[in-house]
From TrEMBL:
Location(s), subcellular: Mitochondrion membrane
Function, in words: Mitochondrial serine transporter that mediates transport of serine into mitochondria, an important step of the one-carbon metabolism pathway. Mitochondrial serine is converted to glycine and formate, which then exits to the cytosol where it is used to generate the charged folates that serve as one-carbon donors.
UniProt xrefs under Pfam families: SFXNs (PF03820)
Family affiliation: Belongs to the sideroflexin family.
Keywords of the record: Amino-acid transport, Membrane, Mitochondrion, Transmembrane, Transmembrane helix, Transport
Mode of membrane association: Multi-pass membrane protein
Catalysed transformations (reactions): L-serine(in) = L-serine(out)
The protein, known as: Sideroflexin-3
Database matches in InterPro entries: Mtc
Top-rank lineage group of the source organism: Eukaryota
Length: 127
């Protein structure tokens, strides 16, 4: 071991107990945190290096457990779980909330417009 942090931490599993609602909620909110969309490429690359080095058994000196878990969740939210490639911004887990809000807003706007036009047409055509 080349650092102060133990290599016994299992980062293949979520940090919190998945047998409880709060554990599942904390895990979900960390992976889908929309703030991760705004992270720079350098921050994403740093998180990738930390996670891959830890998996290989190398620990950066001075790395804390909280920093390791933060890097792991940044890695999970931006990189594909099977290929390890960085995903396009709107395809990342951290982009699900903002992207779905945009889609829902557009759908509601279109619905309101189309429904209003339909009602106006019906009112105009009615005697």
């Amino acid at each position: 071991m080349s650092g102060d942090l133990s290599l016994n931490i299992n980062i293949k599993e979520p940090r919190w107990d998945q047998g409880s609602f709060m554990g599942r909620a904390k895990h979900f909110f960390m992976v889908t945190d929309p703030r991760n969309v705004l992270l720079s490429s350098e921050t994403l690359e740093e998180a990738r290096v930390i996670v891959e080095n830890y998996r290989a058994g190398t620990v950066k000196p001075g790395l804390t457990e909280d920093e390791l878990w933060r890097a792991k969740y940044i890695y999970d939210s931006a990189f594909h779980p099977d290929t390890g490639e960085k995903m396009f911004v709107i395809g990342r887990m951290s982009a699900q909330v903002p992207m779905n809000m945009s889609i829902t807003g557009c759908m509601l706007t279109f619905y309101r417009y189309s429904r209003g036009s339909d009602t106006a047409t019906a009112d105009f055509k009615s005697p």
